[in-house]
Specification:
single chain; globular; 2 domains; alpha/beta; six-stranded mixed sheet
Length: about 280
Amino acid sequence: MKQYLDPKHDLTFKRVFGEHKHLCMSLLNSMLPLKKPIKSIEYQSGELIPELDILRNTIVDVRCIDTDERQFIVEMQLFWYESFKQRVLLNASKAYVKQLEKGDKIKMLQPVYSLNFINEIFEKSPEMKNEYYHHYQIVNINDTEKQIEGLEFVFIELPKFKPQNRAEKKLHELWLRFLTEINESTKKISDELLNESEISEAIGFVERSAYSKEQLDAYDKWKIDLLSAISMLDDAESKGIAKGMAKGIEKGKLNIAKKLKNRGLPFDQISEITDLSVEQIEIL
């Protein structure tokens, strides 16, 4: 029986979408509200790392550019923290501005699209209960048809997604099912996924047999660290709430960060888990 890894993991997500252009292009075309579909992409080398150490955790998962020189940034985020939107804005803005380094005139700058998959629910209001897809643009408040083009953002709350079998959204739904239905406990994969060639190919790239022992060891360590971090964070928040003090939660986050640091977890991952800055983690 075949065994699978979770495609939301950093290792598998980058294997599927960071190494296979046609799969990344299919994902982008199915998720983004583009006026013109993407025909071809090239991956962009180099990271969008700011000069400030406190922001060193803003490394993205996949970045590419199409034949029209539109840029696309794709991220998988397992933890939600309030500053994540600012991080996304920073990365997209930096990618937009970096076009000037090639000597382009301002009027020639091409748009940047930021696609973000979130494995947590962050829009918790009753009216947003069933809304998993969030599209942001820079628009006129009184006339949203008037837009300042250049930056667009999409946030997808994976836990809220429920397939509706819409023909016009077929690949959109199949890719989201790929990200939400497949994990280590998967025994049987739906024929709907296997019968779509691109999805079926992606499934092959998350089979456990497709990875080396070293990669699997790293994956399993990540899973253990993830579960430990979630448990510690929940415990810290519970104690903080019980005390009625924000300081209790903050102290809990610092303790978690220190333990994860001692385990050798990368600072950027610790930052994502605890919502502490890399600078705070470094001095622990």
